[in-house]
Amino acid sequence: MQKPDQGKVALSASVAAAGKKQLHDAGRLCCVASALFLMCPVSADGLPCGYDTTEILGPWIPPLGQSKVRFSDINESDLAVGHDYFVPSARKPCTWTAEEGVKLIPNDAGNWDWVEMIPIAKAPSESFVHDLNDENQVVGTQSAGRSGNYPQAGFLWSLETGRVDIAIEGWVSTGCIAINDAGTIAGDVSLTAQASGFQSTHAFVLHEGEASVIEPVPPYDKSDSRSINNLGTVAGTMSSNTVILRDGYTMNVNDGKVVIYPAPPSASRWWPRDINDLGIISGDLDLLETNSKRACVTDGTTFLELTPFAPASASYLSQALAIRNDGVMVVNCNVICAAVLAPVAGILGDLDCDDVVGPCDLAIVVGAWGTDDAIADLNADGVVSGADLGVVLGNWTQP
């Protein structure tokens, strides 16, 4: 089935690694003064040339050995949250900082204050927390019994308001997945007893008290939500119930415009997991060649696979679940570890990420002259001009 020709197209999924250096092969042609045309890898909007990797390992517990860790978010204070386990049925919540490493919740001193958001009822019940914003508002999903057997409802919770139940009219189940700092909620609804992952699942956004369902764009017949940034842009997936087809999308609450981001040629499908305020999306894709997941980051045009930045204890990185506005990501490995990836500062003027400032960088600036091309606009004044040319010439390193 042919994918819709709309939104931005992923130009390339191929990557070249040199140590911790990764080049973005966006396939842009650059021209030097001699009229010789060269194929130059060009860094994408907002994507760095590489990342520094910090490995996260769980505690070593004799005689069981090394525990596994999976992390789902990291805040501006470099505090990451996730869980630690030996078997999936015995997961324990934990935090991580570079100074203290992995700490289980509650810690040995027992000095954590616990707040029960959903009181335990006499009947069996389930509740899940999915997201927390900087205003300490929490969103999640609840049901009267085990998932799949009882309809789900979403909820918003804070210390000030307590629990506020959320159910979207006309749907059987509602799940609240993400919330931004303005209190706008993104989630899923369905006509079955579980909001997410079913044939009738549709994404929704609850903005200023008004709910809007995000309709799938043909040939897709399902949509779901995964994240919402502080500008009101929802990121999620659209998929099909009849063929293997799953691609990313964004939708901004201010104009309602849906933009589809197809998977790159090397992947059968992909999952956005988080979107920052610059529109950079972290997630994972399914490789066609191996049918395995690989963590990735994309600006919607270029996909950068993150495996070259895997720590020594892992053969690849499987999921990039969170990305901050500064580009720092928390990523899970294929084995026991997780990792924090921090963008590496490149050479000012090195637009093609080859560690030198030279003719190709000059050609990129000249080729974008007079436009607002974010790659070539080195001084970020909104236009590529002589000032940007001066940056390249002033940092020239190629003989």
Q: How many β-strands, per DSSP?
A: 30
CATH C-level of the largest domain: Mainly Beta
Strand content: 35-45%
CATH architecture classification of the largest domain = 7 Propeller
Give the overall shape, derived from the CA principal axes: globular
* Multimerization state: single chain
CATH topology of the largest domain: Methylamine Dehydrogenase, Chain H
Strand arrangement in the largest pleated sheet = 5-30-29-28
Helix content bin: under 10%
Report the total helices.
2
CA(first)-CA(last) distance: 50 Å
What gyration radius follows from the Cα positions, in whole Å?
23 Å
Q: What's the CATH superfamily of the largest domain, by name? A: YVTN repeat-like/Quinoprotein amine dehydrogenase
Instruction: Specify the structural class.
Output: mainly beta
Round the mean pLDDT to the nearest integer and report it.
82
Q: How many distinct domains?
A: 2
The major pleated sheet works out as:
4 strands, antiparallel
Low-pLDDT stretches: 1-45
Could you characterize what this model shows?
The protein has 399 residues and is mainly β. It has two domains: 23-46 and 347-394, Type 1 dockerin domain, CATH 1.10.1330; 51-343, YVTN repeat-like/Quinoprotein amine dehydrogenase (Methylamine Dehydrogenase, Chain H). It has helices at residues 359-367, 386-394; strands at residues 15-18, 21-24, 28-31, 37-40, 51-56, 60-61, 65-66, 68-74, 80-85, 92-97, 101-104, 126-132, 138-143, 152-158, 162-166, 173-179, 185-190, 202-207, 210-214, 222-228, 233-239, 246-252, 258-261, 267-275, 281-287, 293-298, 303-305, 317-323, 329-333, 338-343. The strands form nine sheets. It has a four-stranded antiparallel β-sheet with strand order 5-30-29-28, with no helix packed on it. A four-stranded antiparallel β-sheet has the order 8-9-10-11, with no helix packed on it. A hairpin with a 6-residue loop joins strand 21 and strand 22 (246-252).
